[in-house]
Amino acid sequence: MTRNDDESVEVEPAQPGRKRDPSRDAKILDATLEVLAEVGAAGLTMDLVAARAGAGKATIYRRWTSKTELVIDAVAHMKRNQVDLEHLPDTGTLRGDLLGLFKPQSLEESERRLEIMTGLASLLSQEQALAEAANAAVVQPWAEAHFALMQRAAARGEISASADIGTLSQVIPSMAAYRTLVQRKPFDLAFLVSMVDGVIMPALRNQPSDVKSPSPRRAASVRTRSKP
Q: Residue 5: CA atoms inside 13 Å, Cβ hemisphere, count?
């Protein structure tokens, strides 16, 4: 990794016994998102983030070794705030639960999130090796939520217990990432409805009876190992 956005910084080692402050981390990550939305990936520097967060640049470098790592962590922080695995929708139907994950946003919020994801896409085009980390930040939280909802639907008999929910739980999150990172379009309710009604529910109703369902993490691991 390189630090081509700022000059070298001498980082002081953490003092023995000093605990990392999660609230300070959150403030830095929120500041990163704000700066990324305002100036884009090319304009984002550790100096700007430090000034926005009211933190020293050395403090940031103790936590993140590069701008790219900081941005990916910031996007992961944003995604974690969007989906709460402990409080998932429970409407009584899988369709209702999947649609219940959608949180309406104002036009301003949608544009800001699109700007953030555009900034992430710009960084990934320069450092493809970080694609796995970006997948964990952007896709995985939603895939785990979808997996939990599908697992619950299978338990109540709404869908087959042999349905390949490990794969199907990743379809919408992956398409949403493609839509925002590649197509530069917002993830809206109309798109979600079309995916749920046109892809996910039909696929779950037409699953072979002998398919076993790996978890989302297991499914992702298998795909990674199968790459040439």
A: 21
Contacts of 27 (CB under 8 A, 6+ apart): 53, 54, 55
> Are 186 and 180 in contact, with CB atoms under 8 Å apart?
yes
- Residue located via tokens 């939305």: 37
> How many CB atoms neighbour CB 20 within 10 A?
9
- What integer is the mean pLDDT of 39-68? 89
From residue 228, alpha-carbon distances to 35, 130, 163, 223, 224 in Å are 38, 18, 28, 10, 9
Can you list the pairs that 194-198 forms with residues at least 24 positions away whose Cβ atoms lie under 8 Å? 195/171, 196/95, 196/98, 196/99, 196/172, 197/95
- List, for residues 164-184, the tens digit of each pLDDT value: 999 999 999 999 888 888 888
Question: In this model, does residue 79 exceed pLDDT 50?
Answer: yes
- Angle at which helices 171-181 and 140-155 cross, to 10°: 150
Closest-CA residue to 219 (of 166, 174, 161, 169)? 166
CA angle 57, 63, 69 (to 5 degrees): 95
pLDDT at 150 over 90: yes
Q: Tell me the Cα Rg of the chain.
A: 20
Kindly report, residue by residue over 12-46, the tens digit of the pLDDT.
Answer: 444 444 455 656 888 999 999 889 888 888 888 99
Average pLDDT on 124-137 reads 72
Higher pLDDT, 98 or 187: 98
How many C-beta atoms surround the C-beta of residue 210 within 10 A? 6
Instruction: Write the DSSP assignment of 109-153 as a string of letters.
Output: HHHHHHHHHHHHHHHHHH-GGGHHHHHHHHTHHHHHHHHHHHHHH
